[in-house]
Design brief:
Layout lengths: L3 E4 L2 E4 L4 E7 L7 E8 L5 E7 L6 E3 L7 E6 L4 E6 L8 E9 L16 E2 L3 E6 L1
Parallel strand pairs: 2-11
Antiparallel strand pairs: 1-3, 3-8, 4-5, 4-9, 5-6, 7-8, 9-10, 9-11
């Protein structure tokens, strides 16, 4: 069982930045591939970014590519989402998610159904 707790959300003006954090429980964090997913009001959940268990590879949704950066610190059991140049369209609840991953080959997942554990989410609101 993995528990995930997001933090760092808040209200920011368009063009601003936020850094989300996700803290994971357990001693095997480095064996999990991680992802960020968001859900805007009245919309379905949308994949945002994913990272391999080592942090060596990442992938992003086209809507955030070049503005968001996913990273992780396995020593601290944390994954991050740095969000720059935010727009009102980025307003959503942001969730981190995890799933077990093989050591080799390294892999990330961009399909939400592949993730097993989910956090409670953190609200990000971008004002125009």
């Amino acid at each position: 069982q993995v528990q995930l707790v997001e933090s760092g959300g808040g209200l920011v003006q368009a063009g601003g930045s936020l850094r989300l954090s996700c803290a994971a429980s357990g001693r095997t964090f480095s064996s999990y591939a991680m992802g960020w997913v968001r859900q805007a009001p009245g919309k379905e959940r949308e994949f945002v970014a994913a990272i391999t268990r080592s942090g060596g590879s990442t992938t992003y949704a086209d809507s955030v590519k070049g503005r968001f950066t996913i990273s992780r610190d396995n020593a601290k059991n944390k994954v991050y989402l740095q969000m720059d140049n935010l727009t009102p369209e980025d307003t959503a609840v942001y969730y981190c998610a995890a799933r077990a991953a093989p050591r080799m080959p390294e892999k990330f997942w961009d399909q939400m159904r592949e993730y097993v554990w989910w956090g409670q989410g953190t609200q990000v609101t971008v004002s125009s």
